[in-house]
Amino acid sequence: MGESKKDKIFEKFGIVATKLGNQIHLRTLRDAFATFMPFMMLAGFVTLINYVILEPTGFMGKIISPDTLTTIQEIGVSIGNGTLNIATVLVVAAVSYHMCISRNYINQIAAVLVALSTFVVLTPMKMMFLPESATKSIEVTGIIPLSHTGASGMFVGIFVGLFATELFIKLSRVKKLQINLSGNIPPAVTKSFNVLIPIMLTVTSFAIVSFTVNQLFNQDVNTLITTVITGPLSRVTTGLPGFLLITSVANLFFGFGIHQAVISGSLLDPFLLQNMQENMTAYANKEEIPHIINMAFKDTFAVMGGSGNTIALLIAIFIFSRRQDYKDFAKLSVAPAAFNISEPIIFGLPIVFNLSLIIPFILAPIFSLTVAYYATSFGLINHVVVQIPWTTPPVISGFLATAGDWRAAVLQVIIIAASVFIYLPFLRIDEKVTSTMK
Question: Terminal CA-to-CA distance of the chain, rounded, Å?
Answer without folding.
Answer: 19
